[in-house]
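Try it yourself: sequence plus flavin mononucleotide, in.
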Amino acid sequence: MTKVVNALCIASLMLAAWGCALWTDGTWWMAPPRVQRWWVATGGSVAYAVLCVWCFREVLRNQPTVVAIDGVAGSHEQTDAGKSIGQPARPIAPVLVVYASETGFAEELAQQTVDLLQTLNRSVELLPLEEVTEVKLQQTSQAFFLASTAGEGEPPGHACEFHDTMMQSVWSLSGLRYAVLALGDSSYDKYCAFGRSVDAWLQRCGAAASSDRIEVDDADPIALANWQASVEATVQGELVAS
Ligand SMILES: Cc1cc2nc3c(=O)[nH]c(=O)nc-3n(C[C@H](O)[C@H](O)[C@H](O)COP(=O)(O)O)c2cc1C
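Structure, out:
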């Protein structure tokens, strides 16, 4: 629409220039313009001003607005689906997806979660649990943790050290919202023990659960569908809040 308006403006200016050239043909008339021409000039100026204001409003209306999640600014910029007139754009933090996986199922689900978030137009970062740092979580406003349980209620191998060190301290994560998908098998005594530990640790750190923990018993498809719906609802809810 703006391009059409611009083209119309240029065309009318060229027409006006051509008209002026014809108008001033011959000898110059040095006397002040007659009243009628003052009115024509004033009308033209007012019409031009109205056109400028209208174009400016169109530009503002078409400008994508960026919404911050809970006011936490991130390093990546991204636009949301909503639009707002006259509000300054603000950065939106990427969503963090974290996994702890022994035989690959949680990692596969984490990748699917990333794909889902990307289809929802969110920038996403995927990390194994041991690469998560306190600063990273402090810079994140929404994180999704997918954690399976191995051994007899143990963390997956790659997450053992993180469990034994980092999860024994209390990080300051009051700005973080999170959700946990705990993977396990109810035939084990310590069902979903590690996912539950991750959830409890995040609560101790002051993070707020964006949704209740979902436990997946032996790849239960209903629980997995609930997770997908929960991720979608969480992210879409965030975009409304600012
Ligand atoms: C050796 C082994 C030990 C397991 N121990 C537990 C357990 O203690 N508690 C539990 O809920 N699930 C347990 N599980 C089930 C896994 O957590 C479940 O199959 C999960 O989906 C595996 O995810 P992953 O592929 O990401 O490791 C165990 C599975 C295996 C193979």
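One thing you can check immediately is this: Residues 101-106, 148-153, 156, 183-185, 188, 190-193, 219 surround flavin mononucleotide (CB under 6 Å).
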